[in-house]
Amino acid sequence: MSEPAKRFTIPGRGDVSEWDYQQWRRQCVDSYQRADFPARLVTWADGWGAGKVQPENADWKRYWQHVKARLDGAGVTLAFIGGRGTGKTQLATCAGRHVCLQGHSARYWRAAFLSENIKRGWDDKATESERKTLASVLRVRLLVVDEIGERNETEWERRNLTNIVCQRHDDSLDTILISNHDPDEFAPCVGDSIADRIAGAGVLVFHWQSFRRRGENGLANGG
Ligand SMILES: Nc1ncnc2c1ncn2[C@@H]1O[C@H](COP(=O)(O)OP(=O)(O)OP(=O)(O)O)[C@@H](O)[C@H]1O
Ligand SMILES: [Mg+2]
After folding, report:
1. Residue 146 needs a FRET pair 20 to 30 A away by CA distance; which of 7, 29, 136, 162 works?
2. Is the C-beta atom of 48 inside 6 A of ligand 1?
3. How do strand 106-110 and strand 8-10 relate by DSSP bridges?
4. How far is the CA of 138 from the centre of ligand 2 (A)?
């Protein structure tokens, strides 16, 4: 008996030719590379995708399932908060990979660099990419803003972030905000407008030990 013909399916487009599928796949990979997630975390996410590494910690895995389910195209605003090295940026990178490989766009920014780029974009001497920063931040399907509240932010920076998050929320786009705050510090740091838009189960607290310190003092890292 002959083998059934292999099918090539693109989400939202259905079955296509192998050539069209390979083109689309390449565009997805390009989009993920342009998203600017930290290289080390991209390597880990790709390794997981290829079955070469496995995530530790049952709560982290549960959070991943929760985040993946929320990135369903309806637009969600999420916050990942908690101590250093607990896998917040890693989970956001996996989210970026997931979104890009579905054919959408994503972009990773550290909060301080994002503000600087937007400010420079208004200067006469701005580069083309600086000039376009704000527009692209408002358009991209998944925006990740990391290290929020890392430095003493100015009132301008806080208002800027609020406007970006609110506009994206209104446009049903996905946004992940990341910080090292405790749960009771986070809402005062980002302000009422953002806190209110982060849906009920939208604040994920990464409450375990740093993955960077695993093995120290013989402490296990699982569960
Ligand atoms: N579930 C996991 N299993 C195994 N390793 C992980 C897991 N999550 C993250 N890591 C690894 O742990 C390290 C720290 O992760 P990450 O940079 O995401 O932490 P973070 O919470 O963003 O820390 P910080 O607050 O300092 O930025 C990375 O090397 C990452 O690949
Ligand atoms: Mg981080």
Report:
1. 29
2. no
3. unpaired
4. 22
